[in-house]
Design a protein that fits this description.
Layout lengths: L7 E5 L3 H12 L4 E4 L3 H4 L18 E6 L12 H8 L4 E2 L1 H9 L5 E7 L4 H14 L4 E5 L15 E6 L2 H4 L7 E6 L7 H4 L2 H9 L14 E3 L3 H9 L4 E4 L7 E4 L2 E4 L4 E4 L8 H19 L5 H9 L9 E6 L2 E5 L6 H10 L3 E5 L19 E7 L3 H8 L5 E5 L1 H11 L5 E4 L12 H16 L4
Helix pairs in contact: 5-10, 5-11, 14-15
Length: 452
């Protein structure tokens, strides 16, 4: 990877992945210019590297490495990237650099996982299971560890990458040995501009598989969108957690594999409850069965499931007091994700709200309202959600998570669940869903200590 003497790579956006890219390119002696709109971030960068988009020397820019969160398509496409298109200057994301690097590393085995919901859990679970089977496996990508911050290795390694639609829309190097597409529902439409564009981005994960590889792409077929995708791509390996139509499906705590006429009985899994986690489990089984071949062991698989710990902020049990269970599902950033918790639990005191996703309303979850005892409204969505819920559920307007947690605890009885499943983005009051989840944990701890 080298640039001409007077040309530069331009890193646009200096979040975790941008900073990892900066360090990576510096190690490879690449000429670099960088920018981030946040002045506090720019203070941490050497001034000789900073170059604002308005004064960019376009004739010297060879490639742009863009933060995945900056739109390059749809109505909100960034002017810098539109100008780059006009000038035929390529732009990409950090993961593409990693994929290209991996083409020179035959001991690298790359697995990609996407889906509107569940991809973080599936990524973590598959990585855990591969390690449990004695393989060296690392989870990275959209799950929080930038791929370019990973140390190079000469050991045979499985890199399990969580891939968002933002990233997939800019990836092009076909090196995946396994691709998993779990599900899709409307999300990130402001970024992509349309549902069709969002579906194209997600489906492109199969274009990244190694040509003529021995593995089939894995597709969940439990929603109408993925069912349509499967009709057009019947050679994919179909999985299901809601019907018996998949090549592999899960039902009554058993995995049924039609290909091998195998059945695997599953134990009760406290950290992997609900049909959404059933989909995660069957996806991991399908991938492992292809990756490991004859080395797959049912006993090892089940023991690996039992030893898995649920992810922070994803149906995470954080405390139990007076028979009341506090559950942090801050990662539920849309209604479809929150539905997973409303399906699983009963007697729920539901902390709901934040920055609502376009066109989304809690009324879409009406079939699960029977599981909800009370709602506590927080965040900028409060007024809209209050109008939606009138006459449907008892609710209290709290505005903030600390007050909501306190109100819920005062009203809950033994056997009840206090659930943070906001069904909204966090950006009205927090930097991200992780910060929101940590704040809920702090509020819970303070209540139990008698501080609040």
């Amino acid at each position: 990877m080298s640039t001409q003497q007077d040309s530069y790579y331009y890193i646009f956006g200096l979040g975790k992945s941008g900073l990892a890219t900066l360090s990576y390119l510096q190690k490879h002696s690449i000429n670099i210019l960088v920018w981030d709109d946040n002045p506090e971030t720019r203070k941490t960068i050497s001034e000789d590297l900073l170059q604002s988009p308005e004064t960019l020397p376009w004739e010297k820019i060879e490639k742009i490495i863009v933060s995945p969160s900056i739109p390059h398509e749809g109505p909100k496409a960034h002017p810098l990237l539109l100008e780059a298109k006009k000038r035929s200057i390529p732009f990409t994301v950090d993961i593409e650099l990693f994929l290209r690097q991996s083409t020179f590393c035959p001991h690298y085995h790359i697995i990609g996982i996407t889906g509107t919901n569940g991809k973080s859990t599936t990524t973590s679970l598959l990585c855990h299971l591969l390690n449990h089977f004695g393989k060296k496996a690392v989870a990275a990508g959209n799950i929080g560890i930038p791929v370019l911050s990973l140390d190079p290795t000469t050991q045979e390694t499985y890199f399990v990458l969580e891939l968002s639609s933002y990233q997939l829309s800019l990836l092009e190097t076909p090196v995946l040995e396994q691709a998993i597409f779990l599900n899709i529902s409307p999300d990130h439409l402001d970024y992509h501009g349309s549902m069709d564009a969002y579906i194209r981005a997600k489906t492109s994960i199969f274009n990244l598989m190694i040509p003529d590889g021995n593995h089939k792409g894995i597709l969940g077929i439990d929603d109408s969108y993925t069912q349509d995708i499967y009709k057009k791509n019947p050679d994919l390996l179909s999985i299901s957690s809601e019907s018996e139509t998949g090549d592999i499906f899960i039902k009554d705590h058993k995995i049924f594999d039609k290909r091998y006429k195998e059945t695997i009985s599953l134990p009760s899994l406290m950290n992997l409850q609900g049909t959404h986690n059933a989909q995660n489990i069957v996806a991991c089984y399908a991938a492992l069965r292809q990756i490991l071949g004859n080395d797959f062991s049912e006993d090892c698989f089940v023991k690996g499931l039992l030893s898995f710990k649920s992810l922070p902020h994803r149906q995470e049990i954080i405390a139990q007091e007076r028979g009341i269970i506090f559950i942090n599902d801050s990662k539920a950033t849309n209604m479809n994700a929150a539905e997973k918790s409303l399906k699983v639990f009963k007697n729920i005191h539901w902390i709901l709200g934040g920055k609502a996703k376009s066109g989304e309303s809690p009324t879409s979850l009406t079939p699960y309202f029977k599981n909800v005892a009370h709602v506590y409204l927080v965040g900028s969505s409060t007024d809209a959600f209050e109008q939606d819920l009138k006459g449907l559920l008892p609710y209290t307007v709290c505005h903030t998570i600390d007050r909501a947690t306190q109100e819920a605890y005062s009203q809950a009885s033994p056997g009840d669940i206090i659930l943070l499943a906001p069904a909204c983005a966090s950006f009205d009051q927090f930097q991200n869903f992780e910060e929101r989840g940590k704040f809920f944990k702090t509020c819970t701890n303070n209540i139990l200590k008698g501080v609040l």
